[in-house]
Amino acid sequence: MSLSLSPACSIMLFINLMILLMYTISIAFAQPAAFDHYTLAQQWPAGVCKSSTFKCINPIPSSFTIHGLWPSNKLSPHPRKCSPSFDHTKIKSLEPQLRIVWPNLKLTNTNIKFWKDQWDNHGSCSPWTQNDYFMKAMSLQVHNNLTTMLQAKGITPTGGPHQKQLITDAIKHKVHVDPFLVCAARRYLVEIHICFDVTTSLKHVNCPTPNPAQICGTHVIY
Ligand SMILES: *[C@@H]1O[C@H](CO)[C@@H](O)[C@H](O)[C@H]1NC(C)=O
């Protein structure tokens, strides 16, 4: 049995096929993820481990470690899960360094899984290759050394309360923009965020206050 179409029907079919084709092309060449700044999140392991419900690796690192470098938006959610997905082989040569400055803290997680999650959820939405993404984050951490900034103002990790304002000021003194301090239960310092614009020079910009629940009180445990 042969199917014959009227001319009008053929035209409709043709138009529909063209629309489908254009739609497919628009997905294949999707715009890169939209975001208006980067957030370098460095975690304070002692604070993370004191305030979280999960068990931490032992020993707990005694300096700030990288959580991630996140393409971010001031007013809308971060882009997530772009492409390509994580390929472990691409960061083999960086691993010895990553294990020191970007360790997973959760006992039940692994470094590889932590790096995979950071790449899949954040890095894959950046304009960088996977290798460059991990290199950029590590380089930004070296150039935004929180330990050095705090030490320069006499702030050391005593495990006791410090004035939040003094911590903020010590960082501002060096980067000239507002960092965002993340606390758990308003007093345990768990992370410090420093933000950058999306130009290739990654200039410092003020961090927005992303989540009111994470804001620190006037004193933070560090
Ligand atoms: C930050 O500076 C401290 C000393 O001030 C140093 O021990 C540490 O290795 C530095 N961290 C990074 C990531 O460069």
TrEMBL record:
Q: Which Pfam families match?
A: Ribonuclease_T2
Cite a single GO MF annotation: hydrolase activity
GO cellular component terms? extracellular region
Q: Hey, what's the signal peptide range on this chain?
A: 1-30
CDD domains assigned: RNase_T2_euk
Task: List GO BP terms, alphabetically.
Answer: RNA catabolic process
Cytoplasm among keywords = no
Entry keyword set: Disulfide bond, Endonuclease, Hydrolase, Lyase, Nuclease, Signal
Mind telling me which SUPFAM superfamilies this protein's record contains?
Ribonuclease Rh-like
Q: Which residues cross the membrane?
A: none
What the record says about family reads:
Belongs to the RNase T2 family.
* Name listed for the protein in its UniProt record: Uncharacterized protein
- Specify the taxonomic lineage: Eukaryota, Viridiplantae, Streptophyta, Embryophyta, Tracheophyta
